[in-house]
Design brief:
410 residues; alpha+beta; Murine Class I Major Histocompatibility Complex, H2-DB, Chain A, domain 1; Immunoglobulin-like; 3 domains; eight-stranded antiparallel β-sheet; 21 strands; elongated
């Protein structure tokens, strides 16, 4: 089981590495196209089908084999002129893997057989074209045997394949059909790649940098192009900028491709920025200038107004806090002074009230009728009488007032 996991993982890793390398390396001056038929056969198929097959053109799956109907089905309905299917039916593949694995109906360990057959076209910078054909087999993650188109002979790559080579070399009819199929493949790919090109639609935009207010992120998007190879550069005053990041080439829903590159630039730039795109569908590279606009940036005037408002509000808050502190101090001082004045005023008011009240009380008391004895008569004494007209009442003891102010008596 450990061995089974390793070679299955190997194939997955190979596919991932292949996709990464094809998405990062993109040179339109060295254009490549390929048509591949891929077959996979398993001795045990708990999670995967026992037999599977697909037809791929430039990363686009155009056909697949239906195990239910036992026929090839066109995956992409737009492919009205799909390539011819390769020879060798499903049962032939299952017979080959059982022979290689020494399987019986009741006993068979985990093994995998793979085949890739097809052709590739490479257009070189000088305009010349290279065509390559191949038919290769792998068993348990290792090369097994391959077909030589020119000699119509098989090349064994493992000792286990020597017996297979001898057997297949004698099958001249099958080898001639393989040669014919591969020739048809090159004719089809040569015609198709010239009639199915699509030019890129290029857009340049900018947005503010999320972590640096002094920077913008300038973005160039090319989309809708076919074939997949493209070259893009953001330039400043016609010079390629460094530190550009790329999304890599990605597929669109309509089987075309897109690619996005970006770079950080100074917000207060001086000079011209553009995006240069080179693609095989173009007679000459396309240049799109940046219009200087930013999609999510505030206008300069608005930014100044907002900054002024923020500064004004901040200053107002500070002044209010200072004024509030001064007001609290002034209120405390005023309250203290007012309290002191209140106490003093209260005291003076009390004294004045006492004087006034005493005067009033005295006046009232002076107006009261008193009975005085004078020569045996009762006489009313008025407050208008002078003191020498008033006979002072006796105090309860005998005492006479002398002329010098002293008194005598008992």
């Amino acid at each position: 089981m450990v061995h089974t996991f390793s070679f299955k993982t190997f194939f997955i890793l190979v596919e991932i590495v292949w996709l990464i390398s094809h998405s990062c390396l993109s040179d339109p001056h060295q254009e490549k196209h390929f048509l591949h038929y891929k077959f996979t056969v398993l001795t045990k198929s708990d999670s995967f089908p026992e037999f599977s097959a697909v037809c791929v053109y430039d990363d686009r799956r155009i056909k697949h084999f239906s195990n239910e109907e036992r026929v090839w089905i066109l995956t992409d309905k737009d492919w009205t002129e799909a390539p011819e299917d390769p020879p060798d039916p499903r049962d032939w593949f299952i017979h080959q893997i059982r022979t290689l694995s020494n399987c019986t109906d009741s006993l068979c360990s985990d093994h995998v057989l793979q085949r890739i057959i097809g052709c590739e076209l490479e257009k070189l910078p000088d305009g010349s074209v290279n065509l390559t054909v191949f038919d290769e087999y792998g068993f348990d993650g290792e090369d097994l045997i391959s077909f030589n188109y020119d000699t119509m002979q098989w090349i064994d790559k493992k000792p286990k394949a020597k017996e297979i080579k001898e057997k297949w070399d004698r099958q001249t009819g099958r080898n001639q059909f393989l040669q014919y199929f591969l020739k048809t493949c090159t004719d089809w790919i040569s015609t198709f790649h010239n009639t199915n090109e699509s030019s890129p639609d290029v857009h340049v935009s900018a947005r503010k940098s999320p972590n640096d207010e002094s920077k913008l992120v300038l973005v160039c998007l090319a989309t809708g192009f076919y074939p997949r190879d493209v070259q893009m550069n953001i330039r400043f005053n016609r010079i390629n900028l460094e530190d550009q990041t790329s999304s890599g080439i990605r597929p669109n829903d309509d089987e075309t491709f897109q690619m996005r590159i970006s770079v950080k630039i100074n917000r207060n730039h001086e000079g011209s920025y553009d995006c240069l795109v080179t693609h095989s569908s173009l007679t000459e590279p396309v240049t799109v200038d940046w219009d200087g606009k930013c999609s999510n940036c505030e206008p300069e005037s608005r930014r100044l107004v907002i900054a002024g408002v923020i500064a004004g509000v901040t200053a107002g808050v500070i002044i209010a806090l200072i004024a509030g502190g001064i007001g609290v101090i002034a209120a405390g001082i005023a309250a203290g002074i007012a309290g002191g004045i209140g106490v003093l005023a209260g005291g003076l008011a009390g004294v004045l009230a006492g004087v006034i009240a005493g005067g009033i009380a005295g006046g009232i008391a002076g107006g009261i009728k008193e009975e005085r004895r004078s020569n045996g008569k009762v006489r009313k004494v008025s407050s208008h009488d002078s003191l020498d007209q008033i006979e002072m009442p006796r105090m309860g003891f005998n005492r006479e007032l002398n002329t010098d102010g002293s008194t005598t008596g008992t």
